[in-house]
Design brief:
Helix content: 55-70%
Order of helices and strands: HHHHHHH
Shape: globular
Largest sheet: none
Number of strands: 0
Strand content: under 5%
Number of helices: 7
Oligomer: single chain
Radius of gyration: 18 Å
C-alpha cells in the first residue's frame, strides 16, 4: 500500500470523523437500536432505514459526478470495483456478517466508533473482530494470496 500524502491523510481523517459522527448521531453504536431495527416481528424500529436511505441517496448523487470527473482530487485514480461475478464466498461472508450483526447489534464501523465510549462491550467486539481477521489471514487469506496475482497497487 502506498503512503498517503498529508492532504490525503487529512481528508481521510475528516471523512472518518464525519462517518463516525454520523453513526453516533444515528445511534448505530447502540446495539439495542440496531437489534430493534432487525426485529420486524417484535419491537420494530425502522428509523435506521433513514440512515441507509441517506447513505444511498448521497452516493446516488455523488457517484455520477465522480465518474464524469475522470480523476479524483487527491489521488491518481478512482478505486471502482470491476469484478462482476458473485462467488459463493461472497454470500457466505454476507450471511456471517448478517448473523453477527443480528446477534450483537454491531458491525465494524459503529464498533470502532463505540471504542471512544469506553464500554467494555466495544473492546470485546473489536478484539474478536481483529482476531477473526488474523485467523482468516493465517488460513483462507494465506491460500488466496498465494493464488492471486500481484497488482500494481500492493
Amino acid at each position: 500500500m502506498a503512503t498517503q500524502k498529508p492532504r490525503q491523510s487529512a481528508a481521510s481523517l475528516v471523512s472518518g470523523l464525519l462517518f463516525g459522527g454520523g453513526l453516533a448521531i444515528a445511534e448505530m453504536t447502540n446495539p439495542a437500536k440496531v437489534q430493534n431495527f432487525l426485529d420486524v416481528a417484535g419491537n420494530w424500529d425502522l428509523s435506521l432505514i433513514f440512515v441507509m436511505a441517506t447513505g444511498i441517496g448521497v452516493m446516488a448523487l455523488v457517484y455520477p459526478i465522480a465518474r464524469r470527473r475522470g480523476r479524483p482530487v487527491l489521488t491518481e485514480r478512482f478505486e471502482i470495483p470491476t469484478r462482476s461475478d458473485l462467488p459463493p464466498r461472497l454470500f457466505l461472508g454476507a450471511a456471517l456478517f448478517g448473523v453477527g450483526w443480528g446477534l450483537v447489534g454491531l458491525c465494524p464501523g459503529p464498533a470502532v466508533t463505540g471504542l471512544l465510549l469506553g464500554q467494555w462491550e466495544f473492546y470485546l467486539f473489536a478484539a474478536c473482530m481483529v482476531g477473526a481477521m488474523k485467523l482468516y489471514s493465517m488460513t483462507v487469506g494465506r491460500d488466496r494470496d498465494k493464488a492471486a496475482p500481484q497488482s500494481d497497487q500492493d
